[in-house]
Amino acid sequence: EAGVTQFPSHSVIEKGQTVTLRCDPISGHDNLYWYRRVMGKEIKFLLHFVKESKQDESGMPNNRFLAERTGGTYSTLKVQPAELEDSGVYFCASSQGTENSPLHFGNGTRLTVT
Amino acid sequence: AQSVAQPEDQVNVAEGNPLTVKCTYSVSGNPYLFWYVQYPNRGLQFLLKYITGDNLVKGSYGFEAEFNKSQTSFHLKKPSALVSDSALYFCAVRDMNTGGFKTIFGAGTRLFVKA
Question: Would you state the pLDDT for residue A7?
Fold first, then answer.
């Protein structure tokens, strides 16, 4: 099966610009998650979709971050306007619908805000 | 609040020797625990999980982990390390208070296996 794919793999933008990250989960996985790892620290949860609905968005840093999952398939994470502290690696993961299902991760998008 | 601690930033071991990567957790209720591995420029890959049952769980690539409820630990182990095991390892716990799907990760431990 095709894995979780993320695009782009790298993005370098200037402070104040907008960036949109995309994630295509494994087909059939209703659960989709966004995570972020900043400067070698822990991987922090951002939000969780079940199909097209936001199940938990408690980890979203602020209203400059907007995540969508139209039609319950792929998801986008938009940062507008970007700030320096938004730099990091953004991971998307998907899982099947049981509570003990492991996460399947994409390779991540490395975002650098200058 | 649920949390995971990986006390070592890096673990160094010689090839052929046993390895241990430590993890402790703090949860309310029964823990669902996971280990993931990340190779350079790749996403995290699932290694193994503990849900219930036998305290020693076996996973991919010869890794195993021991669940210890009294010490709230879930250390990752392998009897004989390979150079190819060198990678970044993450311990994780599933937060069952949010519908059971939010996973909380530790900061990661870099394993370096020397030939």
Answer: 97
The pLDDT tens digits for A38-94 are: 987 889 999 999 999 999 999 999 999 999 998 889 999 999 999 999 999 999 999
For residue A4, the chain B residues in CB contact (below 8 A) are 43
- Whole-number Å distance between alpha carbons of A61 and A47: 10
Q: What confidence score (pLDDT) does residue B99 get?
A: 63
Query: Across the interface, which of B102, B106, B107 has its CB nearest the CB of A56?
Result: B102
B49 CB neighbours in chain A (<8 A) are 100, 102
Cis-peptide, bond into residue B31, ω within 30° of zero: no
Res B100 pLDDT > 70: no
Residue B99 and residue A95: Cβ atoms within 8 Å? Answer: no
Tokens (6 digits) for B12: 């160094």
Query: In which residue are the tokens 């937060």 written?
Result: B95
Q: What is the dihedral of CA B61, B41, A6, A65, to 10 degrees?
A: 110
